[in-house]
Specification:
There is one protein chain. This protein has about 625 residues and is of the alpha/beta class. Among the domains are: about 110 residues, Immunoglobulin-like, CATH 2.60.40; about 80 residues, Immunoglobulin-like, CATH 2.60.40. About 25% of the residues lie in helices and about 20% in strands. The protein is built from 17 helices and 26 strands. The strands form six sheets. It has an eight-stranded parallel sheet. The protein has a six-stranded antiparallel sheet with strand order 19-20-21-26-23-24. Strand 7 and strand 8 form a beta hairpin. The longest helix is centred in the middle third of the chain and has 18 residues.
């Protein structure tokens, strides 16, 4: 190219006569017939000055209500009103200005996804069994997307827990039969949106594009295919969302409309991680501010929810993802760190659009009252949360863990489990909380209980019979080990997800005897739970522990299930008459796992460090 032509092209780029690429639009499209029929369309043109341009829309039923301009002239925001009868199709939007080449925006209105509340956005309930997995670590279904040109991170090293391993959505789709065999009814994946960072992109929590699935996981098409495959099996899709922060390489951080979209500090300031400052009547305001406005991590800018444009961007992105990909429930990451008023607004917008969807937050706090503060509760505090449920860390930290690792005392061991469950009165509906033994941030349960395989079985027995929505973490059903730090093995690969793996959890090849026993245990209970009305929707009654023995019942008009744990080192003889309210009128108890039967007129012997699940007849 000769020099005069090159200079002319550079001049055109600088003056906006020629753009390096089409403007980016957020959201990329919307739908006709939505409850949210006013949308704020954010326009970002990396190569053009948009100041002074005026929009016009050529589509019946769509009109511009207001224009928002920013100190960064590469952005515009258009408030669009979409009439109830607006037809789906292309919505040409033209930006014009005196002496400037018109800018054409190709936006779309789509038809809504069919089956809202029945085929998607169904919610998850205590009838479900949720399986949590990391797409990068479960199975590699398409090696061609292991590295994607143009993305910052090109590492691929399965020998390191802190590099990408190549797992993807296609690998999960190919193994849905395995999940179904466990009794699983819902799949929750760590965030699958684009994380275009230089390193550590496997976990997904540093989002760089809220409207694009990471192409290394298979992209938008693979996510839609997974959603469709789940729904075809009668299963559900749970999305992991992040209200609190984004990735350092997000366009709103690299090239922000102005300086108010993220929280800025004179120097890097991390959150205190102290949720108490949000409800402590004696809290210092500076501590409260740092809790909510401090950055969770130096690579994750803290979002300013008080900026109305940022708030609109996030709320619209949530609804866009649910409608676009057919999501059934949403787990909300780092829930306690977001501005709580914004969280209520975002939750309300989602629930208005999808009344049956379930929202549950990561409220990783210490104390039942602390946890209840962040979801629907019985408190009369100034702030009232509308979050339907939480990940129930209290029953992990102060429930099942101490029950299996502490000697029994007045507040220790099985009494800690009993006491913590008794605190359910703080919630409007604790059955909407999600139970867990472990997850991507917690040590594997087998490691917690000192690699005692019987205790691992007890953990799963409790998980699948207690109140609430049970959530299993991938690989723990075959006894995967690991702690969060320093080895990072809590995020190790699922055996069998890669060609050449010596062990294959999906087929059982190479599994040891103990691994097979736990897997079989989970399958039996998970399958039984799918047809047990008492475990799915029944009430719970627990009895004060006596010594090391703790018992609770799940029951309804059709079925009664008795669950009894002996956390001691010797067998315990327990008369059925100890539980008169729940055993009266029954003559027989059948062991759900072994098939053994017991006469309810006699005494039950519970083995040392053992747990029985009995269906009363």
């Amino acid at each position: 190219m000769n020099r005069p032509i090159l200079l002319l092209l550079l001049l055109c780029l600088r003056t906006g006569l020629l753009s390096a690429q089409a403007p980016d639009l957020y959201p990329a499209h919307w739908w006709s017939g939505m409850t949210m029929n006013r949308v704020q369309l954010l326009v970002h043109d990396k190569g053009r000055d948009l100041s002074g341009l005026q929009p016009s829309v050529a589509h019946p039923g769509v009109r511009v209500l207001k224009i928002h301009r920013f100190s960064n002239p590469r952005y515009l925001a258009l408030d669009l009103a979409i009439a109830p009868g607006a037809r789906p199709g292309h919505v040409p939007i033209t930006l014009r200005g005196a002496g400037k080449t018109p800018v054409q925006l190709q936006w779309m209105l789509k038809e809504r996804r069919p089956g809202r509340g029945t085929r998607f956005a169904q919610g998850i309930t205590p009838s479900d069994f949720v399986y949590l997995a990391i797409a990068d670590r479960f199975a590699n279904g398409d090696p061609s997307n292991d590295r994607v040109p143009g993305l910052r991170e090109q590492t691929l090293n399965r020998d390191s827990m802190y590099h990408r391993h190549g797992g993807d959505l296609q690998g999960i789709s190919k193994n849905l039969g395995y999940l179904e065999s466990l009794g699983v009814t819902a799949l929750w994946l760590l965030p699958v949106l684009e994380n275009d960072r230089p390193a550590r992109t496997e976990h997904g929590y540093a989002i760089t594009n809220h409207f694009r699935v990471d192409p290394r996981l298979g992209g938008d098409a693979a996510y839609r295919e997974l959603s469709d495959a789940l729904h075809a099996r009668g299963m559900k899709l749970v999305m992991d969302a992040v209200y609190n922060h984004t990735g350092l390489q997000h366009h709103l951080e690299l090239d922000p409309p102005d300086s108010t979209w993220m929280h800025r500090w004179p120097r890097y300031t991390q959150t205190t991680y102290r949720e108490q400052t949000l409800f402590d009547p004696y809290a210092a305001p500076s501590d409260t501010k740092r809790m909510s406005d401090g950055w969770f991590d130096d690579g994750m800018p803290d979002i300013n929810h008080h900026n109305p444009h940022m708030a609109a961007y996030l709320i619209q992105s949530m609804i866009w993802q649910i409608e676009e990909f057919g999501v059934d429930a949403v787990r909300i990451d780092t829930y306690t760190y977001s501005d709580l008023d914004f969280s209520n607004r975002c939750n309300a917008a989602i629930l208005a659009e999808y009344p049956r969807i379930h929202l549950f937050g990561e409220t990783r706090v210490f104390g039942s009252a602390n946890q209840a503060y962040f979801n629907r509760n019985v408190f009369t505090t100034k702030y009232k949360s509308n979050l339907p449920g939480s990940v129930d860390f209290q029953l992990l930290y102060f429930g099942i863990r101490p029950a299996l690792t502490q000697a029994t005392g007045w507040m220790e061991g099985v009494n800690s489990l009993y006491n913590t469950l008794a605190n359910d009165f703080l919630n409007q509906d604790a059955t909407r909380n999600v139970l867990l033994l472990d997850n991507h941030d917690e040590p594997r349960f087998l490691s917690v209980v000192g690699e005692d395989w019987e205790k691992l079985k007890i953990g799963y027995t409790w998980l699948l019979t207690c109140r609430g929505i049970p959530q299993a973490y991938y690989g723990s059903e075959i006894g995967m080990r690991g702690v969060a730090h320093p080895d990072g093995l809590v995020r190790a690969d699922m055996p069998g997800g890669w060609p050449g793996d010596a062990v294959n959890a999906f087929t059982g090849a190479g599994l040891g005897q103990k691994e097979k026993e736990v897997l079989d245990h989970v399958r039996k209970l998970g399958t039984y739970r799918k047809t047990s009305s008492a475990l799915q929707t029944g009430r719970l009654m627990q009895y004060v522990p006596v010594g090391n023995v703790y018992a609770y019942f799940r029951y309804d008009q059709r079925q009664t299930v008795m669950c009894i744990l002996n956390a001691g080192a010797t067998a315990a003889a327990v008369p059925f008459s100890r539980f008169p309210e729940r055993t009266a009128g029954f003559t027989q108890a059948r062991d759900v796992l072994s098939g053994s039967t017991y006469a309810t007129s006699g005494t039950l012997t519970v083995p040392p460090m053992g747990m029985l699940v009995l269906e009363l007849k």
